[in-house]
Structures are given as structure tokens and as C-alpha cells.
Amino acid sequence: MDPLATGVSRAAVWTGTGVEVRDVALPQEADVTLVRVRLATVCGSDLHTVAGRRGGPCPSVLGHEAVGEVVVAGAQRDIRVGDRVVWSVTSTCGACARCRSGRTAKCHAVRKVGHEPFDGDWPLSGGYAEHIALPAGVAVQRIPDTLDDKVAAPAACATATVMATLEAAGALPGQRVLIVGAGMLGVTAAAACTESGAKVAITDIDRARVLLAERFGAVPDSGGPVDVAIDFSGSAPATAAALNRLEVGGILVLAGAVLPGPPLSVDPEAVVRGWWTITGVHNYERHHLELAVDFLQRTRDAYPWASLVSDPVGLDAADSALTAAPLGALRASIAP
């Protein structure tokens, strides 16, 4: 039966001890954009939540990397019913001092897709559901018909975050770039930095992931000075090692440290004498999502993007995608 006719959708709800598929009332607010989820990929942060390494509201509908089809356009401009879209991780107010300054990713009233309590006023906030409800503060981006769902879904987190890290890294043509961590973000960054004209090396404790990254423009790290280091590992020792390899004027971009961990020891004298820049990236801005979609469209034939995502399981098997590593891929996926 048509969920719109019944007013009810189904969602995989993380309870803290497992996943329960529950019926959820569809929202009726006029400004909410309702999207039927076609495919949701499983980000590492959701795996950390389920494993107990990362805190968050519970119960909740997880999932913040997804692609879907608009069934109610709500308040979104330039979006129509039937459009295939991706959407931002954040819902922002657009009015606070941070939003007005261009830092909407750190809005004072920020709410996050896939991170809200199920028993609150935004139960359908995550992608592991038949439908997701997107408030007016969420950026919604139409995607080309030529992008496969497996390629498009990671744009909403992994690819857009990579676009933000490249912006923080500055001009890249001819630069020696070290990427620390060869997960989904690291492999995506390898391709993006290579396309930008950089010479890209990558390191990871998992040799198989390094080999995979070679298909996306990187070479295995062999040591030596670098102009830019981008960390997606979140490992303090690995980050410290990268920092100490920076050339004069080098830039270190931190994007992987999103879990509690040991502090990073930094020698202020080395920073001063080296003219180093250390910066962080968390969430991303609306234009980074636009850049992500453009990048994936531009490189869709250059790199085997779809191979990074496993074939999807159904909503009733969502718990398996959240607890077991996908075979031969970097992302598990769910097709509600």
C-alpha cells in the first residue's frame, strides 16, 4: 500500500542494543520535504555508534549518506516532485552569527540528519527508512540521471567532506599530498587531489585499502617531506607523524578525529619556524555538497566509484549492514 495514502512509513530504529523496524507517521508540516529513500550507505560514524565508540541520541534512525526521490517538495526552491536528490548532513537556522558569517556547518542551532532522537520532533531524520523528512534548513541537491545511486549516496557525507578538506588545503597543483587513512574519505580524497594536479601518497594500516587507493590515483607512502597532509584516520600517532613531515609552509588538515582520543602533541617552535598551518574540518557547507555532486559526475568514468559500495540489503536486514564489514567494499548499503 502507498505510504502517502496511509500516512505511515517504515524505519530501522537503533535502540542501543539492536535494530527494530517500526512504523512511523509521515510528517504533515507544509515546509518539510519528504523523500523516498532509494539507497543509503553506511558511514563509519554509524558503525562507531553501533559499536559503542561514539555517543548519540538513542533510540534514533541512523544514516546520513543517502539518495532518494522527492515525493513532497516542501519549502525547497528549485526542487520538484520526482527529482532524484541528495541532501546535506546539517539542518541550519540561517540566522545566527555563525550562519551569517558563512559557518553554517557549526550553526548555533544545528541539527543533524541521522543524529536526532526518534522520540523527539524529528523521528524520520535518518536514511535507514523508507522515507526521510527534511526540514527547510537542510540543503537538497538534485543529481544527474547519469550518476548511479551507489555513486551518488556518499556525496552527502564522504564526498562533500572531502571537498571541504581540499578547500582547507589550498591550491594543490604540483603539491606533494599525504593522505592518512584509506577508507571511503581517503580514497575519495586521493581521486580529488589527483584530479586537482597534486602528487598523492596514501598510508593506512590496512594494506588492502592502500592497494584499492591506487585505483583512485594514489601511490603507497614511502616517506619524505610533504606540502599538505590530510588526516582521515583520527589516529593521534599517525597525525603526529604526518605533521612532522610537513615542508616549510606546509598545511595539515584534520578531518578524521571525531571520536574521543589521546591529545596531539604539537611543538609550537616547530610550527613557528616551519610556517605550518593546522586546521580542522567538521561537517561542510552547502557549496561543498554542490561541488561533491559535480566532482562525481565529472569523474564517473575515470574511477570505479560504484565498486566502493556493496550491493544493498533490505530494511529488515539493516542490522547486518551495521554490524558486519562489507565484503570487498568500503561501504555497506541499505535499500529501504
From TrEMBL:
Cofactor(s) for this UniProt protein: Zn(2+)
Example of a GO MF term: metal ion binding
Pfam families documented for this protein: ADH_N (PF08240)
Residues in Alcohol dehydrogenase-like N-terminal domain copies: 32-141
Listed GO CC annotations: cytoplasm
Entry keywords, A to Z: Metal-binding, NAD, Oxidoreductase, Zinc
Protein name, entry field: alcohol dehydrogenase
